[in-house]
Amino acid sequence: TLHESVKLNHKLPSVIDNSSSHSAESSTTSSRKPKRHRRSARRRQGRGKPRSAPSSSPESKEDEGVVPVMIPAPEGAATNIGQERDDGNVEYKWRLLKVHVDRLEHLTTQMHYRLNEGLGECFYHIGVEDNGNPKGLPHHELQETFQTVKRMANNLGAEVHIIRCQRGIEGNVAELLVRQSSEDDFVDIRICVCGNNSSGKSTLIGVLTREKLDDGKGSARMNIFQHPHEIERGQTSAISQQILGFDNKGEITNYSLFRKGVWPEIIKASSKVITFIDLAGDEKYLKTTTFGLTGLKPDYVMLVISGDKGIGTMTADHLGTAMGLNIPIFVCISKTDLPDFDPSPILSELGELLSKGNKTAVTVDADSDVLLRAKTFVNEEVVPIFHISSVTGKGLKSLKSFLNLVPKHRSWAKALKEPSEFQIDQIFDVHEFGVVVQGIVSHGRVLIGDELLLGPSDSGEFRNVSILSIHVKHRQVKQAIAGQVASFCLKDEPLSSVRKGMCLVHRDLAPIASYSFEALVRLEHHPNECKTNFQPVLHIGTIRQTAAVIFIETGVIRSGETSIVRFQWRHRPEYIRIDEHLIFREGSTKGIGKITAVDLEPRSNMGLEHQEDPKNGRTRKNSVRYSM
């Protein structure tokens, strides 16, 4: 029976798991050395050593698993792409001919480094010199160089896809995408989809993930909505997630499956998975949207702007929040099929808003723009703009190519090496299974059977809990690692003892609940000025609670100003870390900051040396200051 199965295997029904994952790298990389000296340094990096190179030389038969692929005809002329960088996930190779075993092993280690830098994927430019000069190669030499790159990838369990071929100075050049192909080690990217109400966010997600175009009346969004009132009103009110999978050739796996939309099957067929986090655009759901941007730790924000209504209040607010949190942004202008569509006013206003964050808007028109912007827009402070239509399909091909090529932005390699920590954002009471918590593994790894500390409680305490089972992306797994959104079934834990904003942490962290903390805050907007005793609602990761301003270094803060601010929680202590971002809102007031110190003693002249416990009326002293 199911009940007996639970007792034996601790299985958890996947229907309660609406999570997204990221396979984090467990390595860090040091400064890259010149190519001729990299071999020994790179062997000490990464997730173990690459598989041994084949013993045969290139003059012999093709390596097992490497199937010859012809280079396509060139399209257009190549230009200089700039000096090769020692770091990053882009490698230049002019030619690789008659490569023997020792050389192939070195090249494979080099590729392993580039894959680590790109968190599972990298780009190779063949026929290109180290200075970026597209010298080019004759067709047969380009073909042999490509086959050598395939052999390197095959040794690492990765696959190679030709993105494009162009004319060089003395021959042709080619750009290759190398991507790891392990089922349990796919590239996972989280994208928050923001924008004003009725801008077409849910419709666009529906079209991208289901392949079927919209009928102009919102048919594509029906599979995205979760609640009856959302279907009735045509508006998103709760956070929902959908995934889009790509295989190693850049083909979308959602479209080829017999059972479309089934997460485990999409993941199994994919080497890269995009998780769209659909956020509400209505102002009354602003707190939920803010939580999505702070608590779900997205790699990117896809801002959708309606082609007929332009940039609304919420669009500007979401854009400002994303820039304040340093989340890279790209823009989709929707409904471009309307007869009176004019992008000029939108582009003008968007340019003004982006200039406040020192960013520049760039419209993506051609395939070459897609390739360039996908790889460089984060570092160059550029915001790519796509003109799309969910009804006619205009611009969707370029957008899909961009999503296939865009790299992972967040790296979890350092966090993976630290003691485990998990932030709770959802709680379920599942019949016959008990309490299930969902959230993000922010540090380390959590295994079935682990005993962690759950807290803090309203009195600031942590207690032992045991992990009964783990689900990631609708699949039962043995462990969840840093960067993954996961669901944990807690053994014999009452529902009343768990709340959103709590954490599961390793006992080695010796967690302390904070009653007050300090942050460097920039006040984005206030009708007058912010003073002490102001009590906004703070968003820090999965935490949402009112806090009182008990000290401002500059006395007051006005719109556009920055100052050190001390806050004190109003209802209960929380577990927070230094360098975490915070957002606060109250009416039209909005501020963004970063935590600089935790558990400072409140100033005596504020009369807040002790805080009354809201449950039993007893007073308690603040914890000592600490940093992590």
TrEMBL record:
It comes from the Eukaryota. Residues 186-420 form the Tr-type G domain. Residues 1-66, 603-628 are annotated as: Disordered. Keywords: GTP-binding, Nucleotide-binding. Residues 32-50, 617-628 have a biased composition (Basic residues). Residues 19-31 have a biased composition (Low complexity). Transmembrane segments: none annotated. GO terms for molecular function: GTP binding; GTPase activity; translation elongation factor activity. Belongs to the TRAFAC class translation factor GTPase superfamily. Classic translation factor GTPase family. EF-Tu/EF-1A subfamily. This is EF-1-alpha-related GTP-binding protein.
